[in-house]
Write the C-alpha coordinates for this entry.
Amino acid sequence: MTVFLSTKQQLTDIERFCTNAEHFSVLGVDATFNVGKYFLTLTTYKHLMLLTKKNTHPVFIGPALIHQRRLFDSYFSLPSNMIKYNPNLQGLLVYGSDGEQNLSDAFDSCFPKSKHLLCDIHMKDNIKRKLCNLGINGKEAQEFLKDIFGKQVQTQKIPGLVDCFNSQEFDNRLEYFRPIWSARHSNGEEFYHYFLTYKADLIKNCMTADLRAMCGLGYPPSMYNQNANECANSVVKRDLKLEKLSVQDCVEHIQNIIQRQHDEARLAVLGRGEYTVSEDYKEYAVPEEKYYQMTKQQKIRLENNFFTARTASSLLKLEENIAVAPGSDGKLFFVLNSFHKATPHQVSISGNQWQYVCDSNCIKWVTHKICPHTVAVAEHQHKLQNFLDWFNAKCRPPKYTALANFNMPASRGKKSN
Protein backbone atom coordinates (compact mmCIF):
# COMPACT_ATOMS: atom_id res chain seq x y z
CA MET A 1 0.00 0.00 0.00
CA THR A 2 1.33 3.44 -0.97
CA VAL A 3 -0.43 6.81 -0.83
CA PHE A 4 1.06 9.75 -2.74
CA LEU A 5 0.26 13.16 -1.23
CA SER A 6 0.80 16.39 -3.10
CA THR A 7 -0.84 19.62 -4.17
CA LYS A 8 -0.41 21.27 -7.54
CA GLN A 9 1.24 24.22 -5.78
CA GLN A 10 3.91 22.01 -4.17
CA LEU A 11 4.85 20.58 -7.57
CA THR A 12 4.87 24.06 -9.11
CA ASP A 13 7.11 25.30 -6.29
CA ILE A 14 9.59 22.48 -6.81
CA GLU A 15 9.68 23.27 -10.52
CA ARG A 16 10.27 26.96 -9.70
CA PHE A 17 12.83 26.50 -6.96
CA CYS A 18 14.64 23.22 -7.73
CA THR A 19 15.18 23.29 -11.52
CA ASN A 20 16.69 26.75 -12.17
CA ALA A 21 20.48 26.42 -12.22
CA GLU A 22 21.13 30.08 -11.45
CA HIS A 23 19.24 30.01 -8.15
CA PHE A 24 17.95 26.75 -6.77
CA SER A 25 17.14 24.76 -3.65
CA VAL A 26 18.15 21.20 -2.88
CA LEU A 27 15.13 18.89 -2.65
CA GLY A 28 15.50 17.00 0.63
CA VAL A 29 13.90 13.59 1.13
CA ASP A 30 13.74 11.55 4.32
CA ALA A 31 11.53 8.92 5.99
CA THR A 32 9.97 9.55 9.39
CA PHE A 33 8.41 7.21 11.94
CA ASN A 34 5.98 7.00 14.87
CA VAL A 35 2.94 8.17 12.92
CA GLY A 36 1.12 4.85 12.65
CA LYS A 37 1.64 1.35 11.37
CA TYR A 38 3.37 2.73 8.30
CA PHE A 39 6.20 4.98 7.16
CA LEU A 40 5.84 8.60 6.10
CA THR A 41 8.46 9.95 3.68
CA LEU A 42 8.58 13.73 3.29
CA THR A 43 10.29 16.00 0.80
CA THR A 44 11.33 19.57 1.61
CA TYR A 45 12.50 22.60 -0.34
CA LYS A 46 13.35 26.23 0.39
CA HIS A 47 10.87 28.88 -0.75
CA LEU A 48 13.27 31.21 -2.54
CA MET A 49 10.83 34.12 -2.79
CA LEU A 50 10.31 34.39 0.98
CA LEU A 51 12.53 35.27 3.93
CA THR A 52 12.28 34.47 7.63
CA LYS A 53 13.04 36.94 10.42
CA LYS A 54 16.60 35.54 10.37
CA ASN A 55 16.91 36.52 6.68
CA THR A 56 16.98 32.90 5.48
CA HIS A 57 14.62 31.17 3.08
CA PRO A 58 11.90 29.20 4.93
CA VAL A 59 11.69 25.42 4.52
CA PHE A 60 8.44 24.16 3.01
CA ILE A 61 7.13 20.60 3.00
CA GLY A 62 6.79 19.10 -0.47
CA PRO A 63 5.09 15.94 -1.74
CA ALA A 64 4.92 13.04 0.71
CA LEU A 65 4.44 9.29 0.60
CA ILE A 66 2.69 6.94 3.02
CA HIS A 67 3.99 3.39 2.64
CA GLN A 68 4.21 0.14 4.57
CA ARG A 69 7.60 -1.12 3.41
CA ARG A 70 10.98 0.49 2.84
CA LEU A 71 11.52 -1.17 -0.53
CA PHE A 72 12.60 0.29 -3.85
CA ASP A 73 9.13 -0.26 -5.32
CA SER A 74 7.53 1.65 -2.42
CA TYR A 75 9.90 4.62 -2.58
CA PHE A 76 9.64 4.68 -6.39
CA SER A 77 6.04 5.86 -6.06
CA LEU A 78 7.19 9.23 -4.70
CA PRO A 79 9.50 10.53 -7.48
CA SER A 80 7.60 8.78 -10.28
CA ASN A 81 4.31 10.41 -9.26
CA MET A 82 6.00 13.79 -8.92
CA ILE A 83 7.07 13.51 -12.57
CA LYS A 84 3.72 12.05 -13.60
CA TYR A 85 1.83 15.09 -12.34
CA ASN A 86 4.48 17.63 -13.39
CA PRO A 87 6.79 16.36 -16.17
CA ASN A 88 8.93 19.50 -15.86
CA LEU A 89 10.34 18.07 -12.63
CA GLN A 90 12.55 15.82 -14.75
CA GLY A 91 14.84 18.85 -14.65
CA LEU A 92 15.40 18.48 -10.89
CA LEU A 93 18.99 19.55 -10.24
CA VAL A 94 19.89 18.20 -6.80
CA TYR A 95 18.28 16.01 -4.16
CA GLY A 96 19.64 15.14 -0.73
CA SER A 97 19.11 12.06 1.43
CA ASP A 98 20.45 10.28 4.49
CA GLY A 99 21.90 7.53 2.31
CA GLU A 100 19.14 4.91 2.56
CA GLN A 101 19.91 2.73 -0.46
CA ASN A 102 16.40 1.90 -1.68
CA LEU A 103 15.33 5.52 -1.34
CA SER A 104 18.29 6.93 -3.28
CA ASP A 105 18.00 4.19 -5.93
CA ALA A 106 14.35 5.15 -6.49
CA PHE A 107 15.21 8.83 -6.94
CA ASP A 108 18.22 8.04 -9.13
CA SER A 109 16.03 5.95 -11.44
CA CYS A 110 13.52 8.79 -11.89
CA PHE A 111 16.05 11.64 -11.90
CA PRO A 112 19.07 10.09 -13.65
CA LYS A 113 20.63 13.49 -14.39
CA SER A 114 20.18 14.93 -10.89
CA LYS A 115 23.05 15.22 -8.44
CA HIS A 116 22.73 13.39 -5.11
CA LEU A 117 24.00 14.90 -1.86
CA LEU A 118 24.46 12.83 1.28
CA CYS A 119 23.83 14.20 4.76
CA ASP A 120 27.15 14.52 6.56
CA ILE A 121 25.50 14.09 9.98
CA HIS A 122 24.09 10.67 9.06
CA MET A 123 27.37 9.62 7.44
CA LYS A 124 29.32 10.72 10.51
CA ASP A 125 26.94 8.85 12.85
CA ASN A 126 27.29 5.67 10.78
CA ILE A 127 31.09 5.86 10.90
CA LYS A 128 31.05 6.61 14.64
CA ARG A 129 29.01 3.44 15.22
CA LYS A 130 31.46 1.36 13.19
CA LEU A 131 34.43 2.80 15.10
CA CYS A 132 32.69 2.00 18.38
CA ASN A 133 31.95 -1.57 17.24
CA LEU A 134 35.65 -1.97 16.47
CA GLY A 135 36.59 -0.73 19.94
CA ILE A 136 37.90 2.59 18.64
CA ASN A 137 36.65 5.26 21.05
CA GLY A 138 37.54 8.59 22.62
CA LYS A 139 40.40 10.63 21.20
CA GLU A 140 41.39 7.89 18.77
CA ALA A 141 37.91 7.90 17.23
CA GLN A 142 38.01 11.68 16.98
CA GLU A 143 41.27 11.46 15.03
CA PHE A 144 39.66 9.12 12.49
CA LEU A 145 36.67 11.46 12.16
CA LYS A 146 38.97 14.47 11.69
CA ASP A 147 40.81 12.68 8.89
CA ILE A 148 37.49 12.01 7.12
CA PHE A 149 35.38 15.10 7.85
CA GLY A 150 38.01 17.68 8.70
CA LYS A 151 37.89 19.94 11.73
CA GLN A 152 36.89 23.54 12.32
CA VAL A 153 39.46 25.53 14.31
CA GLN A 154 37.95 28.96 14.98
CA THR A 155 37.49 30.44 11.49
CA GLN A 156 39.79 27.97 9.72
CA LYS A 157 38.75 24.57 8.37
CA ILE A 158 41.31 21.76 8.51
CA PRO A 159 40.30 19.75 5.42
CA GLY A 160 39.38 16.07 5.51
CA LEU A 161 38.65 13.48 2.85
CA VAL A 162 35.24 15.05 2.18
CA ASP A 163 37.01 18.27 1.19
CA CYS A 164 38.86 16.71 -1.75
CA PHE A 165 38.02 18.31 -5.10
CA ASN A 166 38.26 15.25 -7.32
CA SER A 167 38.39 11.45 -7.18
CA GLN A 168 42.13 11.24 -7.77
CA GLU A 169 42.86 13.57 -4.86
CA PHE A 170 40.48 11.54 -2.67
CA ASP A 171 42.12 8.22 -3.59
CA ASN A 172 45.61 9.60 -2.95
CA ARG A 173 44.60 11.01 0.44
CA LEU A 174 42.90 7.77 1.46
CA GLU A 175 45.97 5.76 0.51
CA TYR A 176 48.07 8.22 2.55
CA PHE A 177 45.89 7.55 5.62
CA ARG A 178 46.13 3.74 5.37
CA PRO A 179 49.44 3.30 7.31
CA ILE A 180 48.42 6.07 9.72
CA TRP A 181 45.09 4.35 10.55
CA SER A 182 46.78 0.96 10.86
CA ALA A 183 49.33 2.34 13.31
CA ARG A 184 46.79 4.33 15.29
CA HIS A 185 44.78 1.33 16.54
CA SER A 186 44.97 -2.46 16.38
CA ASN A 187 41.72 -2.46 14.37
CA GLY A 188 42.77 0.45 12.19
CA GLU A 189 43.46 -1.77 9.18
CA GLU A 190 40.03 -3.38 9.49
CA PHE A 191 38.41 0.06 9.62
CA TYR A 192 40.35 1.09 6.51
CA HIS A 193 38.96 -1.87 4.55
CA TYR A 194 35.43 -1.16 5.87
CA PHE A 195 35.71 2.47 4.80
CA LEU A 196 37.16 1.57 1.40
CA THR A 197 34.42 -1.01 0.76
CA TYR A 198 31.30 0.76 2.07
CA LYS A 199 31.95 4.50 2.35
CA ALA A 200 34.65 5.69 -0.05
CA ASP A 201 32.56 5.58 -3.23
CA LEU A 202 29.55 7.14 -1.50
CA ILE A 203 31.65 10.08 -0.35
CA LYS A 204 33.33 10.48 -3.74
CA ASN A 205 30.00 10.46 -5.56
CA CYS A 206 27.82 12.41 -3.12
CA MET A 207 29.89 14.46 -0.66
CA THR A 208 33.14 15.83 -2.10
CA ALA A 209 33.88 19.56 -2.21
CA ASP A 210 33.60 19.89 -5.99
CA LEU A 211 30.10 18.38 -5.95
CA ARG A 212 28.95 20.53 -3.02
CA ALA A 213 30.26 23.66 -4.71
CA MET A 214 28.44 22.72 -7.92
CA CYS A 215 25.27 22.18 -5.89
CA GLY A 216 25.25 25.72 -4.56
CA LEU A 217 26.68 25.17 -1.07
CA GLY A 218 29.15 28.05 -1.36
CA TYR A 219 32.90 28.23 -1.86
CA PRO A 220 34.55 26.79 0.07
CA PRO A 221 31.39 24.68 0.18
CA SER A 222 29.60 23.93 3.43
CA MET A 223 28.48 20.40 4.24
CA TYR A 224 24.98 19.25 3.33
CA ASN A 225 22.74 18.10 6.16
CA GLN A 226 19.11 17.13 6.54
CA ASN A 227 18.22 19.57 9.28
CA ALA A 228 15.42 20.90 7.06
CA ASN A 229 13.87 17.45 6.80
CA GLU A 230 14.32 16.79 10.50
CA CYS A 231 12.56 20.10 11.16
CA ALA A 232 9.70 19.10 8.84
CA ASN A 233 9.45 15.72 10.58
CA SER A 234 9.20 17.46 13.94
CA VAL A 235 6.43 19.74 12.62
CA VAL A 236 4.44 16.70 11.53
CA LYS A 237 5.02 14.88 14.83
CA ARG A 238 4.54 17.92 17.09
CA ASP A 239 0.75 17.97 16.82
CA LEU A 240 0.40 14.20 16.87
CA LYS A 241 1.51 13.65 20.46
CA LEU A 242 3.04 10.42 19.14
CA GLU A 243 -0.41 8.89 18.75
CA LYS A 244 -0.85 6.13 16.21
CA LEU A 245 -2.94 7.61 13.43
CA SER A 246 -4.99 5.89 10.79
CA VAL A 247 -3.94 6.59 7.22
CA GLN A 248 -6.98 8.83 6.74
CA ASP A 249 -6.15 10.82 9.87
CA CYS A 250 -2.55 11.20 8.73
CA VAL A 251 -3.64 12.46 5.31
CA GLU A 252 -5.91 15.05 6.93
CA HIS A 253 -3.12 16.11 9.28
CA ILE A 254 -0.69 16.62 6.37
CA GLN A 255 -3.36 18.57 4.49
CA ASN A 256 -3.77 20.94 7.43
CA ILE A 257 0.00 21.55 7.64
CA ILE A 258 0.23 22.26 3.91
CA GLN A 259 -2.72 24.65 4.09
CA ARG A 260 -1.06 26.59 6.93
CA GLN A 261 2.12 26.69 4.86
CA HIS A 262 0.20 28.09 1.87
CA ASP A 263 -1.60 30.63 4.07
CA GLU A 264 1.72 31.92 5.44
CA ALA A 265 3.03 32.48 1.90
CA ARG A 266 -0.18 34.32 1.03
CA LEU A 267 0.10 36.53 4.13
CA ALA A 268 3.66 37.45 3.17
CA VAL A 269 2.30 39.08 0.00
CA LEU A 270 0.32 41.42 2.29
CA GLY A 271 3.28 42.12 4.57
CA ARG A 272 1.82 40.01 7.37
CA GLY A 273 2.67 36.72 9.03
CA GLU A 274 6.06 35.24 9.89
CA TYR A 275 7.62 35.63 6.43
CA THR A 276 8.39 38.55 4.13
CA VAL A 277 8.75 38.69 0.35
CA SER A 278 12.43 39.03 -0.62
CA GLU A 279 13.63 42.20 -2.35
CA ASP A 280 13.89 40.53 -5.77
CA TYR A 281 10.15 39.86 -5.75
CA LYS A 282 8.74 42.99 -4.08
CA GLU A 283 6.67 43.58 -7.22
CA TYR A 284 4.38 40.78 -5.99
CA ALA A 285 3.84 42.32 -2.55
CA VAL A 286 1.25 44.99 -1.74
CA PRO A 287 0.36 46.83 1.49
CA GLU A 288 -2.57 45.22 3.26
CA GLU A 289 -4.76 48.34 2.96
CA LYS A 290 -4.28 48.40 -0.83
CA TYR A 291 -5.05 44.71 -1.07
CA TYR A 292 -8.49 45.22 0.42
CA GLN A 293 -9.14 48.03 -2.07
CA MET A 294 -8.60 45.63 -4.98
CA THR A 295 -11.40 43.96 -6.88
CA LYS A 296 -11.82 40.21 -6.58
CA GLN A 297 -10.25 39.69 -10.00
CA GLN A 298 -7.24 41.85 -9.09
CA LYS A 299 -6.68 39.86 -5.89
CA ILE A 300 -6.84 36.57 -7.77
CA ARG A 301 -4.42 37.87 -10.41
CA LEU A 302 -1.97 39.11 -7.75
CA GLU A 303 -1.93 35.77 -5.93
CA ASN A 304 -1.71 33.76 -9.15
CA ASN A 305 1.28 35.84 -10.25
CA PHE A 306 3.05 35.28 -6.92
CA PHE A 307 2.38 31.54 -6.77
CA THR A 308 3.50 30.92 -10.36
CA ALA A 309 6.40 33.39 -10.74
CA ARG A 310 9.75 31.87 -11.68
CA THR A 311 12.93 32.83 -9.86
CA ALA A 312 14.52 35.73 -11.66
CA SER A 313 17.44 35.34 -14.06
CA SER A 314 19.77 38.27 -13.44
CA LEU A 315 22.62 37.49 -15.82
CA LEU A 316 21.40 39.83 -18.56
CA LYS A 317 20.31 42.66 -16.26
CA LEU A 318 23.81 44.14 -16.03
CA GLU A 319 26.30 44.36 -18.89
CA GLU A 320 29.23 43.61 -16.55
CA ASN A 321 27.80 40.14 -15.76
CA ILE A 322 29.24 38.95 -19.11
CA ALA A 323 32.75 39.76 -20.29
CA VAL A 324 34.95 38.60 -23.17
CA ALA A 325 38.10 36.87 -21.90
CA PRO A 326 41.26 38.81 -22.86
CA GLY A 327 43.16 37.27 -25.76
CA SER A 328 40.36 34.83 -26.63
CA ASP A 329 39.48 36.47 -29.93
CA GLY A 330 35.85 36.63 -28.79
CA LYS A 331 35.54 32.85 -28.28
CA LEU A 332 35.67 32.71 -24.48
CA PHE A 333 33.42 34.59 -22.06
CA PHE A 334 33.39 35.05 -18.30
CA VAL A 335 29.87 34.90 -16.84
CA LEU A 336 28.83 35.80 -13.30
CA ASN A 337 28.76 32.82 -10.93
CA SER A 338 25.81 33.48 -8.61
CA PHE A 339 27.24 31.22 -5.89
CA HIS A 340 30.88 32.31 -6.02
CA LYS A 341 31.32 35.70 -7.61
CA ALA A 342 35.14 35.55 -7.40
CA THR A 343 35.17 32.52 -9.73
CA PRO A 344 33.06 33.22 -12.84
CA HIS A 345 31.77 30.52 -15.15
CA GLN A 346 33.59 30.19 -18.48
CA VAL A 347 31.54 29.84 -21.66
CA SER A 348 33.38 29.04 -24.86
CA ILE A 349 32.36 28.79 -28.51
CA SER A 350 33.16 25.29 -29.72
CA GLY A 351 32.73 23.42 -32.98
CA ASN A 352 30.78 26.11 -34.78
CA GLN A 353 29.78 29.69 -34.10
CA TRP A 354 26.48 28.64 -32.50
CA GLN A 355 27.72 25.93 -30.13
CA TYR A 356 28.23 27.36 -26.63
CA VAL A 357 29.93 25.25 -23.94
CA CYS A 358 30.00 26.01 -20.20
CA ASP A 359 32.58 24.74 -17.71
CA SER A 360 32.32 21.53 -15.69
CA ASN A 361 31.39 23.40 -12.49
CA CYS A 362 27.97 24.31 -13.94
CA ILE A 363 25.50 21.67 -12.81
CA LYS A 364 22.92 22.52 -15.47
CA TRP A 365 25.47 22.23 -18.26
CA VAL A 366 26.86 18.95 -16.93
CA THR A 367 23.39 17.39 -16.81
CA HIS A 368 21.58 18.95 -19.78
CA LYS A 369 24.19 20.56 -22.09
CA ILE A 370 22.35 23.86 -21.79
CA CYS A 371 22.38 26.36 -18.92
CA PRO A 372 21.59 29.99 -18.05
CA HIS A 373 25.21 30.95 -18.75
CA THR A 374 25.30 29.59 -22.32
CA VAL A 375 21.86 31.07 -22.99
CA ALA A 376 22.97 34.44 -21.60
CA VAL A 377 26.10 34.55 -23.79
CA ALA A 378 24.11 33.49 -26.87
CA GLU A 379 21.58 36.25 -26.18
CA HIS A 380 24.42 38.68 -25.49
CA GLN A 381 25.78 37.94 -28.98
CA HIS A 382 22.28 38.06 -30.54
CA LYS A 383 22.59 34.39 -31.54
CA LEU A 384 20.16 32.80 -29.09
CA GLN A 385 17.82 31.40 -31.76
CA ASN A 386 20.78 29.89 -33.65
CA PHE A 387 22.03 28.28 -30.44
CA LEU A 388 18.58 26.86 -29.61
CA ASP A 389 18.20 25.51 -33.15
CA TRP A 390 21.60 23.78 -32.85
CA PHE A 391 20.71 22.40 -29.41
CA ASN A 392 17.37 21.00 -30.59
CA ALA A 393 19.02 19.38 -33.60
CA LYS A 394 22.12 17.94 -31.92
CA CYS A 395 21.20 17.24 -28.27
CA ARG A 396 18.68 14.44 -28.14
CA PRO A 397 16.15 14.29 -25.29
CA PRO A 398 16.36 11.31 -22.89
CA LYS A 399 14.60 8.10 -23.82
CA TYR A 400 11.70 8.26 -21.42
CA THR A 401 10.57 4.68 -22.12
CA ALA A 402 13.98 3.42 -21.03
CA LEU A 403 13.89 5.62 -17.94
CA ALA A 404 10.40 4.40 -17.06
CA ASN A 405 11.52 0.76 -17.33
CA PHE A 406 14.74 1.27 -15.37
CA ASN A 407 15.02 -1.21 -12.46
CA MET A 408 11.54 -2.59 -13.19
CA PRO A 409 11.05 -6.39 -13.01
CA ALA A 410 11.34 -8.35 -16.23
CA SER A 411 7.77 -9.60 -15.73
CA ARG A 412 6.27 -6.09 -15.69
CA GLY A 413 2.88 -5.93 -17.42
CA LYS A 414 2.40 -9.72 -17.39
CA LYS A 415 -0.22 -11.61 -15.47
CA SER A 416 1.05 -13.50 -12.45
CA ASN A 417 1.07 -17.31 -12.57
Remarks:
- Confidence is low (pLDDT under 50) at residues 398-407, 411-417.
- The first strand starts at residue 2 and ends at 5.
